[in-house]
User: Which sequence fits this backbone?
């Protein structure tokens, strides 16, 4: 009886660990470091597991692709710091799932997974100037004094104390400050460094990472779903050809930047009156397009 009790306890512990584990470093190049909550940063390794609370830092020559257990993909550019604030994915209990992340510096490209696809209110990406909500999305985000967002597929909403602004596929937006409403910008208004970063991120093959086998929580099947979504997004953004093939072979990072300029910005719509945001997933989801 005692042995049975121990085995049952171990089974519950195993299930809990997998329910709250977050992501795997799908691939990396150059200087990439990872730190757990309260720990020191150390050199990251390919296939390393990351739990909620982990922060990933990339150096001047560092790039990393993270594959979350729900199929979500995050590609980090050099000189970036990204934290997994909260993550829970249980395929059997979707109502309990959620993901909250923060980008402190640098840039990323993200293809959302099953959590964001099933319930937009369960997803939030925080920046110093706004909280980003999504709707079935492939998008890029860069911090350079202001926050710049460019949508490849789907849509996003930038929410801060000034209100919420929605951006659809093909649009580029800027958020100047935490109390300034987001606005659309022309390609010529984007700093050259941001334009180059978006071109590089846009050339990545995001499908390569998402199609990989997932964790035992059921991310294997969801990864395949996100892989197909990522492939469609890559086609929509024109990131095909030799550069995409190179990126796929490298696991999704290390592709050469595109020579074309960034996508021209389009008009966006204010979808809510100015209000103070709490930065929670519920607030972001309510104001997403």
Assistant:
């Amino acid at each position: 009886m005692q042995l049975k009790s121990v085995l049952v306890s171990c089974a519950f512990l195993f299930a809990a660990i997998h329910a709250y584990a977050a992501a795997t470093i799908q691939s990396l190049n150059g200087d990439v470091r990872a730190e757990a909550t309260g720990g020191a940063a150390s050199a990251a390794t390919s296939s390393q597991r990351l739990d909620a609370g982990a922060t990933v830092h990339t150096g001047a020559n560092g790039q990393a692709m993270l594959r979350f257990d729900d199929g979500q993909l995050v590609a980090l550019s050099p000189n970036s710091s990204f934290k997994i604030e909260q993550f829970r994915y249980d395929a059997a209990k979707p109502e309990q799932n959620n993901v909250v992340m923060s980008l402190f510096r640098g840039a990323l490209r993200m293809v959302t997974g099953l959590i964001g696809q099933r319930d937009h209110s369960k997803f939030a990406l925080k920046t110093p100037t706004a909280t980003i909500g999504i709707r079935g999305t492939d998008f890029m985000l860069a911090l350079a004094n202001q926050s710049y967002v460019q949508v490849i597929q789907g849509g996003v909403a930038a929410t801060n104390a000034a209100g919420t602004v929605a951006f659809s596929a093909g649009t580029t937006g800027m958020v100047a400050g935490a109390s300034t409403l987001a606005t659309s910008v022309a390609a010529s208004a984007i700093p050259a460094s941001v334009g180059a970063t978006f071109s590089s991120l846009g050339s990545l093959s995001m499908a390569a990472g998402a199609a990989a086998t997932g964790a035992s929580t059921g991310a294997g099947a969801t990864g395949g779903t996100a892989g197909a979504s990522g492939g469609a997004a890559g086609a929509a953004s024109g990131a095909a050809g030799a550069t995409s093939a190179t990126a796929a072979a490298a696991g999704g990072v290390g592709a050469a930047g595109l020579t074309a300029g960034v996508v021209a910005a389009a008009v966006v719509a204010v979808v809510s009156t100015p209000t103070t945001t709490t930065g929670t997933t519920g607030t972001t989801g309510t104001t997403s397009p």
